[in-house]
Structure formats: structure tokens, C-alpha cells
Specification:
Largest sheet: none
Number of helices: 6
Order of helices and strands: HHHHHH
Number of strands: 0
Helix content: over 70%
Strand content: under 5%
Shape: elongated
Structural class: mainly alpha
Radius of gyration: 24 Å
Length: 174
């Protein structure tokens, strides 16, 4: 009955603050929950997560710079890479160059967002690293070893960011 009354009268007569039903009110954390949160934030996992965030940001920035220069070399000089005959994903090397340059610029921008620990930056970092893996996988016939190195670096970024996001989710549950 009190919930129905609270829901029916959302504002008091003078236009003051809204009255929320009991189930919609935010519950204040208890002392034990606060101590658990503080233990996580000051414990070794927090240092680990902070280190992974720094690692992910640095690695994504490195991947971005390398992607950009890989693309720039393909755009400026098509003879740098070997042309693969009869390749299913045979784009012109200039097109591949632009793809890698765009991924590279996006990766560097997102790396700065990761350094500031923005949630959108963590998610965007995973998307950019995933795009880098796919683009380099498709680029393997043109540059075998370099593409594999770029895939490995991008997978390291994906791992680090997924660990940081997992730690953040655990912290938000408390």
C-alpha cells in the first residue's frame, strides 16, 4: 500500500523532490561492503589492474603507430609489400594502406582514453584491437611475419583490456 501511495504521488504538493518507491531507492552500502571495496582498491589486484591498464594503453598506442606506418608505407610505395596472386581478399595495396592508417589513428586516439580510464575507451580499445587482428589476418599474404607480430600485439591488448574490464565489473558489484 505504501508503494502504491509513493508511486501515485511522485511529487509533493509544493513541487518539491520526487518520492520514490522503496524498491527504486538506492541502498547505502554497509560497512562490510565498504571495507571489501577498500580492500580491493588497495590490494594487489588494484595494482595489477592499474598496471594492465597502463600496459593496454601503451600497447594499443604502439599498435596504432605501427598500423599507421604500415599503412603509410603501402600508400606511398606499393612495391614495399608482395602482391599475393589469386587471393580472395585482394584489395589494392593502397586500399590496404588506408585501412591500416585509419585503424592506426583510431588506436592512438583510443589509447589516450585508456590512459584516462574512460569506460568507453576500454570498450573502444577492444573493438580497435579486434579490428587490427582481422585486418592483419587478411593482410598475411602481403606481409607474413609482420602481420603475425601485429596480431600478437593486438591479442595482448585484448587480453589486458578484458582483464581490466573484468576487475572493474567485480568492483562495481560490491
Amino acid at each position: 500500500a505504501s508503494d502504491a501511495l509513493a508511486t501515485a504521488t511522485q511529487r509533493d504538493g509544493a513541487g518539491g523532490t520526487a518520492i520514490q518507491p522503496e524498491h527504486q531507492r538506492k541502498r547505502e552500502p554497509t560497512v562490510s561492503e565498504l571495507s571489501k571495496r577498500q580492500a580491493i582498491m588497495e590490494g594487489p589486484k588494484a595494482a595489477w589492474a592499474g598496471g594492465l591498464t597502463l600496459f593496454a594503453g601503451l600497447m594499443l598506442g604502439l599498435v596504432g603507430a605501427l598500423e599507421f606506418f604500415q599503412g603509410l608505407s603501402a600508400v606511398l610505395n606499393d612495391d614495399v609489400f608482395v602482391r599475393a596472386p589469386n587471393y580472395v581478399f585482394a584489395f589494392d595495396l593502397t586500399a590496404w594502406g588506408w585501412i591500416h592508417m585509419l585503424i592506426g589513428v583510431a588506436a592512438v586516439v583510443v589509447a589516450f582514453a585508456i590512459f584516462t580510464i574512460r569506460t568507453w575507451g576500454l570498450i573502444a580499445g577492444m573493438v580497435i584491437a579486434g579490428l587490427s587482428v582481422v585486418a592483419n589476418f587478411l593482410f598475411v599474404p602481403q606481409s607474413n611475419w609482420w602481420a603475425l607480430v601485429m596480431i600478437a600485439l593486438s591479442v595482448a591488448v585484448l587480453w589486458a583490456l578484458s582483464e581490466v574490464i573484468s576487475e572493474n565489473r567485480q568492483l562495481n558489484r560490491l
